[in-house]
Amino acid sequence: MTKPVPRTRIQRKNIALISEAALSVFSTHGFRGSTVDQIAREANLSKPNLLYYFPSKEAIHQHLLSMLMDTWLAPLKALQDDGEPLEEILTYMRRKLQMSRDHPRESRLFANEIVQGAPRIMDMLETELKELVDEKAKVIEAWMAAGKLAPSDPYHLIFSIWSLTQHYADFDAQVHAVLGPGHDDPFPEAETYLTTLFTRLLQP
Amino acid sequence: MTKPVPRTRIQRKNIALISEAALSVFSTHGFRGSTVDQIAREANLSKPNLLYYFPSKEAIHQHLLSMLMDTWLAPLKALQDDGEPLEEILTYMRRKLQMSRDHPRESRLFANEIVQGAPRIMDMLETELKELVDEKAKVIEAWMAAGKLAPSDPYHLIFSIWSLTQHYADFDAQVHAVLGPGHDDPFPEAETYLTTLFTRLLQP
DNA sequence: GTCTATAAAATGATAGAC
DNA sequence: GTCTATCATTTTATAGAC
To answer: Which residue range forms the structural domain that includes residue A6?
Structure first.
């Protein structure tokens, strides 16, 4: 589905250029709403030249999604079995919030795909993502059973961290519309708010 | 932008048919990802017949968005100044969660639009929505100042209710992928989880 | 590797008969 | 009001020169 590993310097450079441009375009307009022309312009390449590196629009999209899946899952992977429970959860939340701030396009790329039923990514959700969440849910459950965290549903706890942190990237347009033009960067306030929220929820 | 008020019975029926079909299609594929043909098929009308009732694809989309904005805002409008503060917030959360369960297409219609930068709806967000949130944020702030709720940021409190409840509609595909095929309806668990969350956060 | 030109299909919208 | 036929444009993708 994706191109073989790039060999030459020029191939690496152009594939990186295309990936960067495609991330901007797909995250803003969704898969169907994006055109190869748009991506080519954004990458400063001609359309046929772009299609020399990827066989189709779908291949670019697939390449992006699988390339970014690791970044997407890294914060949850970093949740440490042997850490201090509440601090581990708060650190996970903060890393996710930081990703929303630093990589909003990546977040919206996945958001677009999932809101539309995840047709091109369902496989990865049912395998990679589910297995990771199952594993970490067990860790959280053990913490709760040991009385180190107040009891609640570990799956919905993870969903709530996703939704609360990704909201500031995915629904950025709405957040800014509601807070108004005079408002500063909402992320510092969000971090304070979410720290309080999870501390009060989880402190035994 | 939208058609004038329908006069005859047949007009009312067909406009309702088209709106229903368009809601399904737009909420699943986004504006650009949807085709007039798809909507027409879903409504059991020919494409020219559909375009007899609406001048363009964009007009159908606009019609839907403004028609549904009231439903979308109703739960927050119902937040009562003179109610018991924690109960009012919990009731608002439950109504939003119920909307995610009963009207997931409406939720995804707005989610698609906002994730893509809200190009066709920004006006409403900056006026109608902002004014309503400003008003209710003041009510919540007054409750906190009076010691009836634990202090926190009222805007981010509202954002958190939106993100947590809409997550179960907008990211439904992911929720089901992670919970697995053997899992029941996640809404009852979600309601329990979110009740605990907001109670622990807000109880003075 | 990159370009111009263009094929082939999809899509939004209209004309005009009934 | 509804249909068939069709136009105009956009869009994905390819051919072939350089």
So the answer is: 1-55
Which of strand C's nucleotides are less than 7 A from any protein C-beta?
Answer: 1-5, 10-16
Candidate from B125, B126, B173 with C-beta closest to A117: B173
The Cα–Cα gap between B108 and B172 comes to: 10
Handedness of CA A9, A13, A18, A19 (dihedral sign): positive
Residues A18 and A93 in one domain: no
Q: B108: Cβ under 7 Å from strand C?
A: no
- Same domain, yes or no, for A36 and A111? no
Q: What is the CATH number of the domain that holds A50?
A: 1.10.10.60
Residues B22 and B79 in one domain: no
> CA-CA distances (angstroms) from residue B53 to B8, B9, B58, B174, B194?
12, 13, 13, 36, 43
Choose the closest CB to B189 out of A156, A162, A190: A156
Q: What is the CATH number of the domain that holds B152?
A: 1.10.357.10
pLDDT per residue as tens digits for the range B137-168: 999 999 999 999 999 999 999 999 999 999 99
pTM over the 0.85 mark: yes
pLDDT digits 0-9 by tens, A131-159: 999 999 999 999 999 999 999 999 999 99
- What is the DSSP secondary structure assignment for residue B183, as one 8-state letter? -
Each residue's pLDDT, cut to its tens digit, for chain B (204 residues) gives 445 566 789 999 999 999 999 999 999 999 999 999 999 999 999 999 999 999 999 999 999 999 999 999 999 999 999 999 999 999 999 999 999 999 999 999 999 999 999 999 999 999 999 999 999 999 999 999 999 999 999 999 999 999 999 999 999 999 999 999 999 999 999 999 999 999 999 999
Partners of B130 on chain A (C-beta within 8 Å) are 177-178, 180
Residue B147 buriedness (CB in 10 A; 0-12 / 13-18 / 19+): exposed
